[in-house]
Amino acid sequence: MEVVILQGSKQIGQLVADAIEALLRRKPTAVLGLATGSSPLPVYDELAARHQRDGLDFSNAHAFALDEYVGLDHGHPESYREVIRREFTSRVNIAEGNVHTPDGAAADLPAACSAYEEAMRAAGGVDLQLLGVGTDGHIGFNEPGSSLASRTRIKTLIEQTRRDNARFFGSLAEVPHHVVTQGLGTILEARHVVLIATGAQKAPAVRDFVEGPVAAICPASVLQFHPHATILVDEAAASSLKLADFYRHTYDHKPAWQGL
Ligand code: F6R
């Protein structure tokens, strides 16, 4: 696990965009794993700017979202299918048919979950998976207690996550209770995992999953098993890390050729 502590979201957005740009130049057919929520927005803004300004090309890329609410209509503005389209994919030249989200409106949800896993496999697997982390340590919508080997499936949100996400809806009552999410086992198969956490409210979760034990009570801790996981945090989210000075020293002396 590499922990990179940066000043703020803008610097994080640029560094992650550098990694995605390098990936697309090396592999134009790259498969991107997309997250919703606030954490990846600076990355999407930076990628959209590079597409507009420098012609960064997404025309042969593919994208798979991490998760989706159950029970929202396809066109609902807070469905992750719409959020991903609005915040990112409609701002670059990725083909609409290459962008996938789990189908939270499917009549047969288990079959839709299996089909999603199959579509990811058929696309060759995820090259770079963007992640945020919940205040309870969830990644995707794998809440505490999720199996560390889980695959795409239906999950129930804990109340804290519903409260955290109520800011996107008119009221708490409108936040669905159920979601479909890639499992922790699914996420671990991505070739490179890039997690972004900003703000003091994320500091306890960051401390627990980076420096605590690997345990289902803190789902993001499973990333300690990933051979290429990059954790990007601002100063506030890093404020409870015991080894913060060591992470800073390591990153400051990292050979430039290594990239993220
Ligand atoms: C979103 C997702 C969630 C969020 C997490 C953090 O697709 O899978 O795990 O990444 O809830 O959300 P923000 O970034 O809004 O703090």
Automatic annotation (TrEMBL):
Keywords: Allosteric enzyme, Carbohydrate metabolism, Hydrolase. Its EC number is 3.5.99.6. GO terms for cellular component: cytoplasm. Gene3D superfamilies: 3.40.50.1360. SUPFAM superfamilies: NagB/RpiA/CoA transferase-like (SSF100950). Allosterically activated by N-acetylglucosamine 6-phosphate (GlcNAc6P). One of its GO terms (molecular function) is glucosamine-6-phosphate deaminase activity. Transmembrane segments: none annotated. Residues 10-224 form the Glucosamine/galactosamine-6-phosphate isomerase domain. The keyword Hydrolase applies. It is an enzyme of class 3 (hydrolase). The active site is at D67 (proton acceptor), D136 (for ring-opening step), H138 (proton acceptor), E143 (for ring-opening step). GO terms for biological process: carbohydrate metabolic process; glucosamine catabolic process; N-acetylglucosamine catabolic process; N-acetylneuraminate catabolic process. Catalyzes the reversible isomerization-deamination of glucosamine 6-phosphate (GlcN6P) to form fructose 6-phosphate (Fru6P) and ammonium ion. This is Glucosamine-6-phosphate deaminase. It comes from Pseudarthrobacter sulfonivorans. The lineage of its organism: Bacteria, Bacillati, Actinomycetota, Actinomycetes, Micrococcales.
